[in-house]
Design goal:
The chain has 579 residues and is α+β, with helices and mostly antiparallel strands. Helices cover 26% and strands 28% of the residues. Strand 14 and strand 15 form a beta hairpin. Helix 2 packs antiparallel against helix 6 (167-187). The two termini are 31 Å apart. Residues 574-579 have low confidence and may be disordered.
Length: 579
């Protein structure tokens, strides 16, 4: 492609709307443009990168035995009502009506649609296993879209769905997809981890996220410093050490109520009493489909709402407004405590080992000092309820955990019979018995993968694309358009590169050399070839890798060194199937 003919509107200034590196650079490099909050147009350069990722995905999905389909984006409400998700999915579901006032949604995911398709097509175990995938536009009405393609409302997703005869066979499909995903993200040139994760609104009993490590990532992941344990912070666990040390004798026979005006936070309470936060407990009111409950954790810990939801066996969980807690329960937020409650109490497993503690008195402006587990309060429900922290012990080997930031680019789920049972998707087994299909589902955010690659690969001058997903592999810069010899040579080399199947952008613009250098760096082309009048007279072609500060010189009259260099770079090209 000739730069002079390409719609490639690069920007010198950082757009005010950009928040993270990938957002800034994709706007500056002319890859995307914002249409509305969380909705972006892909310009030619951005679409080229997107297509390169899609091609890698298709190759590896096909290699794993999956077959590509294309399902409707607009889905009838009846299917979602049948699965029970029409109301459960919440406000992220974009609900629409047709001219007959029938309810539809713009699909955020396709479990219902694919299950409906298969229940009408599959009759026998002989048709299984089956894995179908698509690459398609989705829409989720995010309450606060941000970070460009990282947290958009409209996005391009690869979603696949497997169908098997039983859980063992579904496990094989799951493992096959896990291996395929590892190949996909490796070929995209990403530094990533596969981590255990919560299944969220998709459901199922087992899932892994594929997380690209980046400081700008929204997700936190915990990983062991010694073994291969890794999990999303919402799912991560730590080893619990049951202390055998007896608690010291209490300083008083009963808790002492102390006036603590304007002390509502853990820090304010700890400072008031002159103790560390871990000598206090944090008491929080939650509401779920099961009603109100209080959750109690050590004061220096954060409540993990995913773990609380699981411990309760609830469908949903939220923190009610303080006014509602006061009106419904008569309790003052900021001074909550676990004594004398009329609602269920859920306690973190660490609390019984804390000895004397300080907690709210359930009376505004007062706390209790000298509170003891067992003597003053207790609970029948106890579990691991906190977010893990760096330095906690690995649940598998006992070594230390570390916390890193990351960007989720893929998620795989073992769904079991969650959807097949509700939508009555069955098959006849070898004995002629009707059984529910056992499902898995597997998603990749395609645009997010491009953005994540930029978050890992950039410098002060712009994007440093991994070769496999770079929109152009080579930038050819003509620095002297007035020279017939230089221009003729560049034209010939441009055509030769194209004939060898190498995507090249030929900068034939009437611009200063500095502008051409800056644009080539900004858009992240892996290899830059430069020729000007001086180089032509010396008989050399200047070659520079995007990730190197060193310029090499190759002879103009011998193409072999250039072809060898390009062959080395192309060894991991997305167009070459992995072995």
């Amino acid at each position: 492609m000739r730069f002079s003919r390409m719609h490639l509107p690069t920007l010198k200034e950082v757009p005010a709307e950009a928040e993270v590196i990938s957002h800034r650079l994709m706007l500056r490099a002319g890859m995307i443009r914002r249409l509305a909050a969380g909705i972006y147009s892909y310009l030619p350069l951005g679409l080229l990168a997107l297509r390169n990722v899609e091609e890698i995905i298709r190759q590896e999905m096909n290699r794993a035995g999956a077959q590509e389909v294309l399902l409707p984006a607009v889905q009838p409400a009846e299917l979602w009502q049948e699965s029970g998700r029409w109301d459960f999915y919440g406000k992220e579901l974009l609900r629409i009506k047709d001219r007959h006032q029938r309810d539809y949604c713009f699909g955020p995911t396709h479990e219902e649609v694919i299950t409906d398709l298969i229940r009408h097509e599959v009759r026998s175990y002989r048709q299984l296993p089956l894995n179908l995938y698509q690459i398609q536009t989705k829409f989720r009405d995010e309450i606060r879209p941000r970070f460009g393609l990282m947290r958009g409302r409209e996005f391009i997703m690869k979603d696949a769905y497997s169908f098997d005869v039983d859980d063992a066979a579904a496990g094989l499909s799951y493992q096959s997809m896990r291996e395929a995903y590892s190949r996909i993200f490796s070929r995209c040139g990403l530094n990533f981890r596969a981590v255990e994760a919560d299944s969220g609104a998709i459901g199922g009993n087992f899932s892994h996220e594929f997380v690209v490590l980046a400081e700008s990532g929204e997700d936190a992941i915990a990983s062991c410093t010694d073994c291969d344990y890794a999990a999303n912070i919402e799912k991560a666990e730590s080893r619990f050490v049951d202390s055998a040390t007896p608690s010291p004798e209490p300083t008083a026979a009963a808790p002492v109520e102390v006036a603590t005006p304007d002390c509502e936070s853990i820090k304010e309470v700890a400072d008031f009493f002159g103790v560390a936060p871990e000598a206090t407990i944090k008491s929080m009111i939650f509401e779920s489909d099961l009603g109100f409950c209080m959750v109690v954790v050590p004061g220096d810990c954060e409540v993990n709402e995913i773990k609380v939801t699981a411990a309760l066996g609830a469908e949903w969980l939220e923190i009610p407004p303080p006014a509602r807690i006061a009106d419904e329960l008569g309790l003052p937020v900021g001074y909550l405590g676990p004594l004398n409650l009329s609602i269920p109490l859920l306690v973190d497993r660490q609390v019984p080992q804390m000895g004397e503690i300080i907690c709210g008195a359930n009376r505004a402006g007062f706390h209790l000092q000298g509170v003891l587990w067992g003597r003053d309060f207790k609970s029948q429900q106890m579990a691991d309820l906190v977010l893990v922290r760096a330095g906690d012990l690995c649940p598998r080997c006992g070594s230390l955990l570390q916390i890193d930031r990351g960007i989720e680019v893929g998620h795989i789920f073992k769904l079991g019979t969650k959807y097949s049972e509700k939508l009555k998707a069955t098959f006849l087994d070898q004995e002629g018995q009707e059984k529910n299909l056992v499902m898995g589902c597997y998603g990749i955010g395609v645009g997010r993968t491009v953005a994540a690659a930029i978050e890992q690969n950039y410098d002060d001058n712009g994007i440093c694309f991994p070769y496999a997903i770079a929109p152009f592999k080579v930038a050819l810069l003509n620095l002297d358009l007035k020279s017939e010899e230089v221009t003729a040579y560049c034209e010939t080399l441009y055509k030769e590169l194209q004939s060898r199947g190498i995507s090249v952008i030929y900068d034939d613009r009437n611009e200063r050399p500095g502008v051409k250098f800056k644009d080539a760096d900004l858009i992240g082309v892996p290899l830059r070839l430069t020729l000007g009048r001086k180089g032509y007279k010396r008989g050399i072609l200047e070659v520079k890798s995007r990730n190197s500060s060193v310029n090499e010189e190759l002879p103009l009259d011998d193409r072999a060194p250039l072809w060898r260099l390009l062959d080395e770079l192309a060894a991991n090209d997305s167009r070459i199937p992995s072995q």
